[in-house]
What we know:
Layout: H1 3-36, H2 38-47, H3 58-66, H4 69-89, H5 98-113, H6 116-130, H7 132-135, H8 141-162, H9 169-174, H10 185-194, H11 198-207
Helix pairs in contact: 1-4, 1-5, 1-6, 3-11, 6-8, 8-10
Amino acid sequence: MKLTTIVKEILVEAEEDQLSAAMGTSFKTLGAEIESNKDELVQDVQQSQAEMNESLGVVAIFGMILAAPKVVELLVRGLSALIKTFKKFFVKGGAKTEEEQSQVAKKIIDFTHKWHKAYIKGLNWIFKVSGLYKKANITDSAQQLKTATFVYYVIVASLAVYSGVGAIGAFKSVASSANLGDLSLGTLETAMASIKSGEVTQFIAKLGLR
């Protein structure tokens, strides 16, 4: 094995470790930010002009989030470590070939796997505590969880699109029961498609992914 190959493998491993660490740091920061700004967050949501909608669709979800600037602000603060670390390793539009896109997809699957359930639970909690669910008249717990899950998938999908993976095919090419974990390809595909909508694009821009 050549020295250059060994160095390359070490660098790849280090990158994945940093991405995983950033995922955890972002999650912890997100929780701390929400706890310390809870009162202001609730007040901001109450004063927002979010439209009530019992059957919340993709556009309505992000319209609701963007209508409460404090929610976006705290999400940006919480996810900043992840976004900054991600940008170090993935240049927008960098994955050109199918092989490169598959490699990016595998990395995303690998480093999001550990935090999948935690992030969804965290987002669900944020939307409950802030009063966003109440504002949007989402009272069913299953629908609430579905909403939080979709927001998480849009975040994951936006990381993929930012790094040059524009279609679900790259994820399908590396998907297996061994590495896919809790990730749903169907939901991810819907999330990637939804990024084309104005509201979702605004949300991604505010996170720092353009």
